[in-house]
Write the structure tokens for this entry.
Amino acid sequence: MKSFVSCLILFIVISLGSASCKKSTTVDPATIGNWVTRSTFDGVSRSGAISFVVGDTAYIGTGYGGNAQSGGTAQLGDIWKYDIDHNYWIQRASLPGIARREAVAFSTSTKGYITTGFDGINKLKDTWEFDPAQNSWTQKADFPGTARMDAVAFGISNKGYVTTGNDGTDVKDFWMYDPATDTWTQKTSLGGTKRSGAVAFVYKNQGYVVSGTNVGAVVNDFWMYDPIADKWSEKRAIANVSSDTYDDAYGTLIERSGAVAFVMGDKAYLCTGISGGTMLKSVWEYDFATDLWVIKTPWEGAERTQAIGFTLKNRGFLGTGRNNTYYFDDFREFFPSIIYNAND
């Protein structure tokens, strides 16, 4: 009988130990997501560049290289395309207009567009169209709002949209560009706070604008635009401002400016940026279905602001940017469902 009891006790101890081991395998959500190094950008290291995607090809260009790193020319006008299938960069025709930083870009199914920005002295409003098939640029109708920098733009159904930015003060007027007629039309202004240094992205033919600063203070309101109704709808704030528990983990951790955003599947990702003078590398995932954010594995490069990001073949990429006076040319791809691997 003693032998049976001893065996029973031993079995219980082993079982408890096994259950304990299973509990300890819970995965920290901040380690879900993996960044994999891709080909270093071939151009000058820079911040405040633009990116746009036409078909299965991404293009980046313009920006600020810093005098020391760009042969004395701080503002840049060069354009590069990324070949995702072969993981390399190819230089294309440079922007024939004024070299600039903190411009915006959007695209249609066949063309890319650049407008606004800052040349180091003046804010700009000229607009340029890039034809990838011809590797050529054509000047288009000027942006009709005030000349500005640090705005956001997105493309929906072969139309371009530009809003926010700084023309000497932060603004939030909203304009649509129709390439078919080369005309701009003012639309309903962004709801909520004026801002600059925000991000914009598109999901299911609706535009989203979030983050940024107003008079130097980060903002937490988040807006969605329906182009059919010409209407903005407010989403949940990106800070712990409600009496519910869903945003308890947000704190002030999502708020930032100079960030990067891209969309993969049914999720958007907000990465890097600056908040309160602190450079960031944190990454937050937004679920369009639930209107909620969760933290993911941080960006694996150095903390930075004014980087660029894009989605290509439903794959998210981030690179360039600056940390104070240091400028970057590294690029990485994000895999949101893979456990972090320090060796990638």
